[in-house]
Amino acid sequence: xxxxxxxxxxxxxxxxxxKPLADICGxxxxxxxxxxxxxxxxxxxxxxxxxxxxxxxxxxxxxxPCRMTSSSHQTGTERLYEISQQLxxxxxxxxxxxxxxxxxxxxxRVIPASKENFFAANLMAEVKNPAEVVDETxxxxxxxxxxxxxxxxxxxxxxxxxxxxxxxxxxxGILAYSPQALHFFAHTPRGKLExxxxxxxxxxxxxGKPLTMIPVQAESLSVDTPKDLVYVRAVIRQKLEKxxxxx
Length: 247
Prior knowledge:
Layout: E1 3-9, E2 23-24, E3 27-28, H1 29-37, E4 45-50, H2 53-61, E5 66-68, H3 76-84, E6 91-95, H4 104-109, E7 120-126, H5 130-134, E8 140-143, E9 149-153, E10 169-177, H6 179-186, H7 192-197, H8 202-206, E11 212-216, H9 226-242
Parallel strand pairs: 1-4, 1-6, 4-5, 7-11
Antiparallel strand pairs: 2-3, 6-10, 7-10, 8-9
């Protein structure tokens, strides 16, 4: 089974423009994401998918495979689909370009054991910081007993009316799709709920398509705002000082 990992990297983020190029301890953020992805086993090919020549330039500078995509894409999944029309694979793993702390082992968890006709999966991690529960940039998710996603929201879900015996979970920016699942996403218009919450994965739920949620232990944090960048820089600086990672 051939697995391609794609790192969507859009320059004009609404909350943090140019963030794939933000400096983290002397390297651009996109370099850190690629570094982590390149250590994942069962990944046969990796490339950055961008819409901006400056990101392409920096990728070439660091020897990172990169492909230009349309600037009209509204989601990373659409960018992923465009790459899938150029690069043949059995599974496409989406690793968001703002996940510099992603562990290679987590990437491996989202890859299915064998080729499937329609496959879509997303990692989720328990929310341990109360601030993340109410932060709308952290997308919360609930799933059924079989791990199938029921709903995604920027609001805290579920609501603790009758019990506190539960944990909040947030989705991580690591997903996997079969070609058929990507085709479905690209050729299906946004539904009402997706438009309200602005959460791409709701497209599967609104149309009755299975989206498997895989729980993992993760300390990863997506860089959505400059304050997130401050935290990530501190984590990576500490790892460098301890010799846990090297440039």
